[in-house]
Batch of 2 targets.
Target 1
Amino acid sequence: MWDMDAARDALPVVLSGFGVTLLATVLGFAVAVVAGLAVALLLRSGRRWIALPVGGLAAFVRSTPVMVQLFAAWVLVPGLDPLTLGVLVLGLHYATYLSEVYRAGIDAVPKGQWEACTALSLPRRRTWRAVVLPQAVRKVLPALGNYAVSMFKETPFLSVITVNEMVHEASAFGSTRFAYLESFTLAAAVFLLASWPTSLLVRRLEARLAH
Amino acid sequence: MTDSGTTAFLPALGRALPAIGEGLLVTLEATALGAALALLVAFALGLAARSRSRTVRGAVRVTVEFLRGTSLYVQLFWLFFALPMLGFRLEPMACGVLALGLNYGAYGAEVVRGAVAAVPAAQTEAAVALGMGPGLRLRRIVLPQAYVLMLPPFKNLLVQLLKSTPLLSLVTVADLTFRIDQLRSATGGTAAAYLLLLLVYFGVAVLLGAAMNALERRAKARLGVTGGSA
């Protein structure tokens, strides 16, 4: 049954893990946002010898379990600390999702915008940076937000390569004190308390951008 | 070291092939059962979300947010480690199927709700005008059209669900990841083992995707035929 003392002891342990969870989410998502854009632009480069292998690799990464990718990276890339490695793997995995999101956003920029850039003979770089990307990114902000929430909830996977994020800490506390009920219930509550308001915020953003 | 690992890996792989096959079957079983439960949950919650009663809609909202917001990983561990402390012990596979089904069912509920809402209101109005009851309307008019819209997001969810099944190996289910992990620790052919594992998952994901695409084509064709004769 529920043990109040165990719960009181578990709370600071779980919360200290939550700090690592947040850090992993922020860093991982930063990697995903940048790498995802890079993938999207490479796929649109118009050079088949770039687009084909990049697209194939992205499809492979997207279609295989992130947990197995973490294990594989753990043995293939020695010498990195677990958190850095985890952030890179999780970030690159999500980059393959985000590249699709960016692509949809870029495709949704009206053709007239491109034509206007040509008419003004804006250089290609400037066309992308000043005209296309700002509009594309604005359109896909809610989708990016949803993926951030989703990544947040997948950070426990990092515990398989010994990152001491929240679920790892809850698990360790549970096994030493035999208090899994308290520690995992608290971890679940923290996830819910953090992700619900964030998804409400994303939905609000969605409604606002729709106008 | 890597060389000896790789040379030991191939014969060991040959010997381990039956075990890996069994692991693959367990992974497929978990995917199929999890997806079946998720489909059930998705339709139950997704249709209830369109109820006229505010209480029902509110209850569905809370359930969906709860199931999506608490992280699949934590749900599975809670069912496996915490639930026994309340006096209920489930088989590891049952924990896995339950966690996958409830979590993905909640995501699916949004898909069902959205797809049903996207069917033009005139379709329902026409069915009402023809004197169809609510059950018949849903079955013969709304769902066949909503179904086509549901299939592409369901395809994504199904592949996501498959990609979540390695989690089950963490709660002692002898799935594909579990078996290949055993092979890896027996041979030291580590990189090769994980590469093989990724390739098998990729193959299964591609096959599932192709199957869902075929379903979508068929559903569209059927809808075309129905529309033509009506």
Target 2
Amino acid sequence: MIDPVTTEIIRCALLQAAEDMNTTLIRSSYTPVIYEAKDCAVALLDRDHNVLGQSSGLPIFLGNLEVCTRETERMFGRDVWREGDVWVLNDSYIGGTHLNDVTVYGPIFVGGELVGFAASRAHWLDMGSKDPGGSMDSTSIFQEGLRMGPMKIYENGAPCRDLHEVIARNVRFPHATLGDMRAQVACAMTGQRRLAEIVGRWGVETVMAARDEIFAQTERLERQAVAAIPDGTYTAGGYLDNDGIDLSTPLPVNVTVTVEGERVHVDLTDCADQATGPVNCGAAQAVAAVRVAFKLLISADVPLNGGSFRPLDVATRPGSMLAARSPAACQYYYSHLGLLIDLVVKALAPVVPGRAAAASYGDSLIVQFTGADPRTGKLYVSQEATVGGWGAWEGGDGENCLINNVNGSLRDMPIEVLETLFPVRVTRYEVRPDTGGQGQWRGGNGVVREYEFIGDTSLSLWFERSVTPAWGLAGGAAGAPPRVTLNPGTPRQREMLKVNALPVSAGDVLRCESGGGGGYGQADLRDPDAVADDLTQGMITG
Amino acid sequence: MGAKAVHAAHLRTAQTAYGAAMTFRVAMDIGGTFTDVVCYDEQTGAVLASKAPTTPGDLAEGVFAALGRVVDDPTLISFSWISFFVHGTTQGLNALLERKGAKVLLLTSAGARDVYQIARGNRERMFDLRYRKPTPLVPRADVMEAAGRLDWRGAELEPLDEQAVRRAAQRVRAEGFDAVAVTLLFSFANPAHELRAGEILRQELGDDVLVVLSHEVAREWREYERTSSAVLEAYAGPVVRTYLSRIERRFAERGLTVPVHVMQSSGGLVNAGFAMRRPLQTLLSGPVGGTMGGVAAARLLGRANAICVDMGGTSFDVSLVVNGRPDVSAEAHIEGFPVLMPIVNLHTIGAGGGSIAYAEAGALRVGPESAGAVPGPACYGRGGDRPTVTDANVVLGRVDPAWFAGGLMELDVEAAGTAVATLAGTLGMDPLQLAEGVCDIANAKMAQAIRTLTVEHGVEPREFALVAFGGAGAMHAVFIARELGIGEVVVPRFPGAFSAWGMLEADVRRDLTHPYFRAQDDLDGGHLAARLAELERDAMAALDSQGVAHDRRRVEHALDMRYEGQDYTLTIPLLDATEPASPGFLQAIAQRYAEAHTSRYGHATPEAPVEFVMLRSTGFGTFPKAATAAPARETHPPAVRDVIFDGQVHRTAVLRRSALPGPLNGEVEGPAIVVEETATTVIPPGCLATVDANGFLIIKVTS
């Protein structure tokens, strides 16, 4: 039996190895989606595809990188792994997300023996979809760009020229894309080096014994945490606004959470069938979303590794929006996942009062515009997520203007960077008062971000959560829904939440307003001093 | 107090020998608890160190007390003997930590009022539904807007609304603000609007109110980071200004005739006059002294690279010396707020002596929770009952109770033993095994943190010497070095006052930046060289205003570059200001960039176009570096204790630092423990230590 000291030292070394991989990836990537939005994740896996160490910029990538190595092995057999090879995969129905999320992974050998895998997933700016950067109205995966099953991009340490050529000729920004790919390869190599060092120092047997103990520790902690929750069946339901094609039909998402002793079962079968528009995801991603909720509510402080989520199982229905099959469109795979996380929180809120909060504004709220920059003649794509209000809880107001739950470290685009890179001007970036739900504790406020285009451009929008805006808890009010207005206060004023490739002209103004978070408790119980301060600070206007 | 008596005798002798000609270089590091003073006698090369409690009411008192401790009669010291005076302060940082800074009004461009509150909208903790950003230093109600707008090149789209600026000034007067921070969009490209706003505000408000213009604090793009930097300067600045002017006055009254120099976060010195105008630069003044000590130590040892390890009761700071220079970055976060300024990279890890060991689901964990000073480790006897790293060291016999904290604190060995034994019982381990395990885990975590830092630079820790200081640094250094494959550990003299010593060894430094956003196709080498020549003139003028003699000035130039589309830049050094005008420059610099990229990230894209973002010119004013005399050797018979290494009891010599054999006079064979007033060094079995000509303890590490 391995001693607790060696186990702990190995555990810390594995976590640090994952951090080093993440640092390598973020610092050498080429596109803002990775280095600003942190739309990426890394994992160090053992040879049985369990997570040894993980680091993620995006919560929603939690614990599903291993599906890529696992599926590769299932398809081609264990002997397919060769030293010096690096693989790539972006198939939505395996990885669970959209084609832009590309997983790069390689086996790690020590002394000729397979000991594990290093993997990273990162958002590539453009995959050659019908519209630059991705479409808001795709109805089939075949409109969404280059789709790669498990394929080698490096063989025996040398680049596979054929696949490099295929990528370079199918994406719109080959330099940046191949640069990001190289950053991912460098990240995999960092992981390989680190794990080889760890195994070299302690030996495979000891590392594997430590792994078993580390996983067992995590499992024990999570089972204890689950056991503390009262048994019962808890449900919540909500709606995705629509699928981006048929704008009048909300799509239901219902969750049923059953807690029984040390186990949690989450049933997601009662949700909409896979939709025409791009709001579908692979089952792996629905599972990942539930895991995010599990972490948020049950095991936030428990180390994350291959022992995580053992008390949790998730049921999905193949052919539904949350377990889509080919050729379902998947570009906006995450809108219902943010909703799903909020719904699991809502369902369990009464029994985990110490961690729950009212709902947040909910979605990434994407503003994308693309065209030829009149200043240089070059093609560009600008893609931004929008911050909004978060939910209040017993004892605290929700935060204002914070990025949504499927994102994490995502930072907004500085006005000065945006205007330097793209032909646009940001004329307002402000707190949107009165949008947080009222309550004894107030929901956070959303934001107003207003753009003025200085060249003709093609505008796409994906704004969500207007049908079930951020709900309150314990008598708190719901937050305000989002609102987007083109040319506000002019005869050409037009409101919309989702649109694909709408032509707009130089001088047009776009006002984007995100939703607020839900309130907590009865508004009439709010401390009068807090109300007075809200007025002073302009968080409410009276 | 034997050491003190010796110092005093020495000083008196020196005075007799040199009379009025004697001169001292003096550094003082005023920390939250203690004031450290290091004096260097320019005639004899002798170095003296002293410590006294910091006196928050009038900090000068603590400095006088510390100076006074090196002589029996403080009146013997005349401040007129001081030829050079340097100071590190945590005043600004403390004001921030305690939220006791100035009342600041923030003036922004119209429409951008909430940039500071939004704070880029990211979450630092991923699994927390109750996440809150750091509370802004300026509440939303104290942010005002002025119309007026520049475009991305700095061209004016709309003139500055001067009435709005005057309204802000009125409010400052009416509501008693101490400072105004001004951040207007694109001021990094064209500061005209900010300069005009500053002019109006100064006209209206006079000198009583600090006016901070963002482009003067940080001439870099990204409005939130620039705003945060300007607000921090406005928030901490008045405190620093008041403090420095008081210090200057008090020391002048005591006869000081030379300017007070202040350590900047960049690791360079400036005079107090400049520090009062740019107080932000002093924010991390204290701790970076240690890194500059590491730079000096590396120079004296003839080594290019060093890892500086500063371990105290509750913290563990790592910094790097690479190619003889401190590792300085252009951006840092302090208390969750970004600051754009050159700042020595101090990587802080919660793994000091106070880190608590605990059991969780059968696992043994160490830190990051710390016992702090109260209750502190169990061995402090202040009621702490959870075992810490310090307690583990006590149980292993690695701390000599007689010398703990310079003999100023009684050590409760029994309490440490009980705390360790209790945890050992929980985990079913032998107490000694547990104690050593706690140290091993702490050492492994510190080593991993160091490896991450070196990986970021694309360098191997093996190539470094490990310079250990702080009270506990040298207790763990050899073990950390082993984890990293490092062969040499250096314990400088006065490890407890190393920061102050480092300040004595630092150079004057002024950093100038100039935004220079260009695609490679738009690069005009002649134009770039002309801009650099201007920066060089500015840097020389800045050094001139610091009183640096002509033959001691030097300006280095570098370019921030990246591949088109990247955000992070790498700073690529230039040969000199004229290099860009030479033929083939673009090719040469692109090649240099690709090499740097490969060394840092393991790959490069030579065919991809590069772009230029920023010019960086740094002026250095060097001081003559005098040789240090080896300390006099004293005789003390060694004591012997039982100490645990690798699960075995070793009879271990406990030696006084001052009694170690001098250079070339022999070696100390491990196991041994070397004690001195402010620190303890542990030399495990198999390692050999020598004292070099500088008085440094050099440990050859064997695995």
